[in-house]
Amino acid sequence: MSDLSLLALIGVLSICCQWLAWRIKLPAILPLLICGLLLGPTLGLLEPDALFEDLLFPFVSLAVAVILFEGSLTLKFEEIRGHGRMVTNLVSIGMLVTFVVIAVLTHFIMGYGWEISALFGALVVVTGPTVIQPMIRSIRPINKLANILRWEGIIIDPLGALLAVLVYEFIIASQDVAFLHALQAFATTVALGFALGWGAARLLGLALGRGWFPHYLQNVATLTIVLGVFALSNAIQHESGLLTVTVMGMVMANTRNLNMEEILEFKETLSVLLISALFIILAARLDFAEFDALGMPAVILLAIILFAVRPLAVWLSAIGTELRFKDKVLLSWIAPRGIVAAAVSALFALKMEESGWTEAAAVVPLVFLVIMTTVVLQSLTAKPLARMLGLLEPSAKGFLIFGANQMARAVAKSLQESGIPVRLADTNWENIKLARMDNLPVYFGNPASEHAANNIDLTGLGRLLVMSPYKQLNPLVSMYYQDWFGSKKVHGLNGGEQDYRASHQLTESYRKTLNLFGESVTYSKLASLNFKGAKIKSTPITDSFSFADYQQKYGTRALPMFALDDAEKVYIFTTERELIPQPGWTVIAMISAEPEENDSEKGGEKGTD
């Protein structure tokens, strides 16, 4: 097979693996690793060293630089403080305990030198959102634990990468020199990394904030500058580039009034492409003999990491919190390793082997063994464990609402007041700000983006209402969540004849979702009613006040939206079926502002502006 054919095959298989992972709701790292092992050591079709030759090392270096920069863009220091004491402890105390204990165990169990043992310990502290998020969605633990696991993964991703880079920099600086000289070289590298990373971030932030680049060049310019800074840092101080770009991303993430949404989405897309190809290539370089060479000591080390190190980190981090025993048991079991560990370990091993560290070759199979075992074992067992402990989330009866405009906020408030979980998502910051003032849970950004996949909290939410005026985004969001919630749990407003034709051109499945509240109900109609003073009211249906009485009382003034039965199950009024609320149910409807006597005398309505 020609080199060009192999490259094309890697690209095609990368997409296939990502699709399969999305379809079966498992971390993408699993099919990517399996694919690489099949192509490389099993079938012998792909030999990355022969295919890339001298370009393998630069490709891996640049790919890891982009991955670390993109990951560090998600680290906002205010979020560490804003997600509870347990999360803060896990990404500080827990991370350091995991690092130190694993490093010591690796030294004594595997017999590696302290340098390699410390590097391995630093590499496997990271869980990461790309492996945690699919697992949380599959397990569906209670909201409190899901949030702890989610934010631990998001925050520890860049912090763990920074720890691994610092350990690696110290090892390189200490090679064949006295300890004092090693400290001086390490201090120089750290000083350069933080100074150049901070300066480059400030300069790039200034350029983006003041519009020095036209809109269509912003993403490409950012990528080019990041790679340029990476190369410049390495030229000034050997192997300082990874630290520099990691610091650069962290500084930009915490720069006020700097809109990074589009750049972050671009970097996420690029990272998915790079990660997919990189994992197949790195897995293809592995040899099954390397796993055999690890022997029983690796099995013992892995068992201690799973059953002792993680529980120790969780129990120490939980001191002073209100977590129950069973909460800590579940948290102790869910800690799959992922992208940063695999990508960075392979790069560091390549670099250290070139520098004469023969033990470094064993780090990669050991890291990959930890990744595969934790992801597979915990994916299969975490949900039964959560069920046994009684920590599964109840049925997802809540709503994700795309759109945080005034009308959508009124709908969300009425549902929330009825005890139904909601979350509003919007790309308009003003709408999000107003929703927050109403104490409504929100997500700022495109809910169909990679960022949303890693960050949006869908705990307790199982249906989507598309109530936004964004004609370009509405179909994308609808189709994205059809794949996640199911096609029958996604509902949107009919946009009129023009949108009907457009939706028909997209997919028949999307057109069928345009059934919310009735065939003639459009976003414009609801917005107009809301502007004219219509209110959303909750009205109980009783034996003495049936739904027929309700319709007779309000007539065309009422636009029924939802009905809650006596078990608090929520039904939506759609065009697909006739819904007749029974006694004991509650009807939530938008009532027009036309005056009518005795509006508040019957039914005991509660209104929401």
Automatic annotation (TrEMBL):
Pfam families from the UniProt entry: Na_H_Exchanger (PF00999), TrkA_N (PF02254)
UniProt domain Cation/H+ exchanger transmembrane: residue ranges: 13-386
Membrane topology note: Multi-pass membrane protein
GO MF annotation, one: antiporter activity
Domain RCK N-terminal: 399-489
Biological process, per Gene Ontology: potassium ion transport; proton transmembrane transport
SUPFAM superfamilies: NAD(P)-binding Rossmann-fold domains
Segments crossing the lipid bilayer: 6-22, 29-46, 58-75, 87-110, 116-136, 148-172, 178-204, 216-236, 242-258, 270-288, 294-318, 330-350, 362-382
Cellular compartments annotated: Cell membrane
Record keywords: Antiport, Cell membrane, Ion transport, Membrane, Transmembrane, Transmembrane helix, Transport
GO cellular component: plasma membrane
Record carries keyword Ion transport: yes
Name of the protein this chain belongs to: Sodium:proton antiporter
Native organism: Idiomarina abyssalis
